[in-house]
Amino acid sequence: MTGTTQDDYTDRYARRVRGMTTSEIRALFSVASRPEVVSLAGGSPYIAALPLDAVGEMLGELAAQHGATSLQYGIGQGTIDLRERICEVMALSGITNASPDDVVVTVGGQQALDLLARLFLDPGDVVLAEGPTYVGALGVFQAAQAQVRHVAMDAEGLIPAALEEAIEATVRAGRKAKFLYTIPTFQNPAGVTLSGERREQVLDICERAGLLVVEDDPYGMLAFEGEAPLPLRARRRDGVFYVSTFSKTFAPGLRVGWILAPHAVREKLVMMSEANVLCPSAFAQGAVTRYLSTMPWREQIKVYREIYRERRDALLGALEDLMPAGTTWTRPTGGLFVWVTLPEGLDSKAMMPRAIAARVAYVPGTGFYADGTGRGNMRLNFSFSAPDRLREGVRRLSGVMEQDLAMRAVFGGAALQHTHQRRRGPAAADAPGPDLA
To answer: Residue 50 above 60 pLDDT?
Structure first.
């Protein structure tokens, strides 16, 4: 209809993209990228810790010596050399029974999730996922027109009894969940890790219910205190799809991830990937293969662990010293994130513009729930900024929170609510973007 929209194509879009909007949070992140703003928001690894001169030389040699193949089209499943290296990487985490034939190389972990959604989800299907969960996965499931039902977590990760309850509630509603999507190790955004005992319980529950498991494991090698529990895929082979990526342990800009799938499903994933991207980048695959074959990548992971442990400790210490009373947070033993619960009455989404004005950024908790809840939470990242910068960011954030608490004490909730009347309920889709990854 003329005069009602700036988009002349609105009535031509497919149903699955209706309601997709760019949130005001994304607009604020464009400001958050300025150097004067301390960003606690993104999920970026600290790439400067890599031996960049050696990596640059390696990439130059790849182009000069193997350009005829590395700059050419490849195959949909990914090169056999890389798939063999991926199996070696997984073996370090305890997945020792993987075959290169069952590995499908993807354009980052994000495409892996998209392929699984395309393969298994019809409109109206139910996906069970931790609450909160990775915003990029929520975008994929929403694009597939699936319904996400969240399963509660605590300090030990997903609660098995809550999973059973969610399965039963889905059945009572006359529906069937297609799979459980879980990040059991150093979860994004909560930072918690599913205990070994609970991993067995969750697998037993899913097996009894005939529920597939999609295990997303980008952070499992970034443990700070001993080794992480064995992945779910190391414990059970059937019905578990293992997804991971080199974005957190090498270079997110190369966009190389993978799926380890049951053999019967592998070929369908390859066909779907070919229809989606034709083939993953041969150059990016060659770069990762050479990195894993010629450079001390295991030592590099140890370097990341030490850097991130120091930065986690700096963030936790700053929270302990500076946060207002009533604030609580998780204490991750690996990964990149801390999940903060605000004092009663504070709204992380409403507070975001004031935080940006104070030159600090975070991710409001609403982005990690399919139903738009999570206003009382925020995600903080500690991997990218130096310890002194993290402390300064917390100092600025604490000041914003103290001001909001003071306003509530004087004027009540209305003083903060009238400026941010927002629809509660299902959140509009918002592509994850690097600031939310």
So the answer is: yes
Instruction: Compute the distance between CA of residue 191 and CA of residue 152 in angstroms, rounded to an integer.
Output: 14
Structural domains counted in the chain: 2
Q: Is the dihedral of CA 308, 313, 318, 320 positive or negative?
A: positive
Nearest Cα neighbor of 377 from 391, 363, 387 is: 363
Count of H-run helices and E-run strands, the chain:
15, 14
Give the percent of the chain with pLDDT over 90.
82
- What are the strands, taking DSSP E only, across 183-294? 212-216, 240-245, 257-260
Q: Among 50-59, 62-71, 101-110, 427-436, which is the least confidently predicted range?
A: 427-436
Do residues 110 and 225 both lie within one domain?
yes
Specify the pTM.
0.92
Q: Which domain holds residue 342?
A: 16-49+299-436
The last residue of a domain, from among 269, 294, 319: 294
d(CA 434, CA 437): 5
Do residues 219 and 120 share a domain? Answer: yes
Cross-strand pairs, 409: none
Alpha-carbon distances, residue 203 vs 8, 94, 194 (angstroms): 48, 17, 12
Asked if the structure places residue 133 within a domain, the reply is yes
Please state whether 265 falls in left (phi above 0), alpha (psi between -120 and 50) or beta. Answer: alpha
pLDDT of 13: 83
- Rounded mean pLDDT of the chain? 91
Is residue 127 in some structural domain? yes
| CA separation for the pair 16, 342 (Å, rounded) | 34
pLDDT in tens, 128-154: 999 999 999 999 999 999 999 999 999
Residue 35 dihedral angles phi and psi, to the nearest 5° = -65, -25
